[in-house]
Task: structure prediction
Amino acid sequence: MRAERPSRLAQMSRRAAITGAALAAMALSACGGNKGGSAEGDMALGAADGAKVTVVEYASVTCGHCALWQQNTWPAFKAKYVDTNKVRYVFRELPTPPVDVATAGFLVARCAGDAKYFQVVHQLLATQQEMVTGSPRDWLLRTAQAAGMNEQQFADCVSDRDAVAALEKRIQQAQAQGVTGTPAFFVNEQEVITPGSSEGPSLADLSTAIDAELAK
Result:
C-alpha cells in the first residue's frame, strides 16, 4: 500500500494486525470443504429460507479460483436456479490470503448494506486483478465509493472491531463444519466437486446434484 495518507493506512494496518492475529490459526488454503445448513450471518439470494434446495458457496474476494467461478459459471447458474427461485443460494465469507485485504473487502460489503452486499462482493471478484497490480487499499476504496460510501465511512468500516469479531465467528463456524478452503460448494449439505477443476464445480455437476434434490 502507498505511503501517503498515513492515518487512513494506519487504521487499516491496525485492522490487518488484529485480523492477522485472530485468523492466523485459521488460515485457509489459497484457493475444498463441508456443510450447508443455515448459519448466523448468511447472505442469500433466490428462494426463501426453508427452500427444498439450498446451495451454499464458501468463497473469498481475494481467491482467484472464486473469481474464475463467478466469471465463468455464476451467470448461467444464477439464470437457471437463482432468478427462477428454484434454489436458495447462500454465500459465506472465508477470507484467504492476503487475509487482511479479504477481511476488509467483506467488511465493506457488509457496510454497504444488505441491498448492495452482493453488488460489492461481485465487483471485488470481477476486479480482483486490480488488487494484484495496484494498491489493495485503492481497490477497496473505489469499490466502497461505487457502493455510495465516502472515504471516512470506508475508514470507519474497515476498522470496526465488532464487525471483525462477527466475521471471525462465522469463520470459526465454517471450520467447525470442516470447510478448509475456497471455493467450496454444497447442495443440501452434500459437497459438489468437479474433478480437475481449479475454479469450483461446473454447472453440469451442480445441475446434476440440484436436479436430483428437486426431483425428490
